[in-house]
Write a structure and sequence with these properties.
The longest helix is centred in the last third of the chain and has 28 residues, at about 300-325. Helix 4 crosses helix 7 (about 120-135), helix 4 (about 85-95) runs parallel beside helix 13 (about 300-325) and helix 7 packs across helix 8 (about 150-165). This protein has 13 helices and five strands. It is about 55% helix and about 5% strand. The model has no long low-confidence stretch (mean pLDDT about 95). The chain has about 325 residues and is mainly α.
Amino acid sequence: MKTIFSGIQPSGTPTIGNYIGAMKHFVELQSQYDSYFCIVDEHAITVPQERLKLRQQTRSLAALYLAVGLDPSKATIFIQSEVSAHAEAAWIVQCNSSIGELERMTQFKDKSAKQGKSQVSAGLLTYPPLMVADIILYQTDVVPVGEDQKQHLELTRDFAQRFNSRYGNGNQLLTIPEVYIPKEGGRIMSLQEPTKKMSKSDSSKKAFISMLDEPNVIRKKIRSAVTDSSGIIEYDETEKPAISNLLTIFSAFSGESVDALVERYRATGYAVFKNDLAEAIIQVLEPIQKRHDELMNSSELDDILDEGAEKARRSANKTLKKMQNAVGLGRKRR
């Protein structure tokens, strides 16, 4: 089986956009690949975090991984900081990357332009090498990403090719990964600004639905979601981005095609459509939330994460040793 790797930051409870665009696909892919799904907590500290809150969010995200259907007998589920090879490999990646290519990364460019380079952490510049390390350590063949993460995959591919050329002596030390972009639901937009991606860090709580939002909160957020004045339910991303986004969400949660939904609600108006959309979301999220809460209050979650970290260490350390040998780190015993 080919290997797949992906990780999500525990910087807050995932939104339904994260579920549709990533986590739902993880469940579908885990049987097709040798799967590694990680909670990338080291990435989260590129900006200041509250210690106890970060730990709680890390544990909660791990519980959600399992609650949505990830199976520890099929996938390796672990926390990034519990596998030290990630940080060690990232240093080797940094030493084989240029400042120029790191400064071209979109997030660093945007934040340093807004705040000034003197105000952003060095980690914001060097976290892409950590992301590269995350991927190459598992000799990853496929990485599921959104369109906005393709730049990091290109950095990973460039590094793996450079490393193999520089140190491989004709051998492929590191696998060059391919990008996997979901065909459907890859980009869920804000409920308040449908031209902007849904984000858990949005200043407006009405703009996103959290995976742990209570049913009445979900109903209120869907009722307040922007639409347009026509009252006609049709899919047109250019002319009607708001209702098109709601149709995409409805399709993802109901399993019904967008075309079928358009036909069913064409004459009903927005109120009925929104009511049924909210109930479709609640029907999927309620059992996930129940399982999440059970895991958060049991030792089962810790046992799974302990086992996942051990499996990840065994795999990652093999690649790390290759990298260390290639660049000349450590002793060669006689």
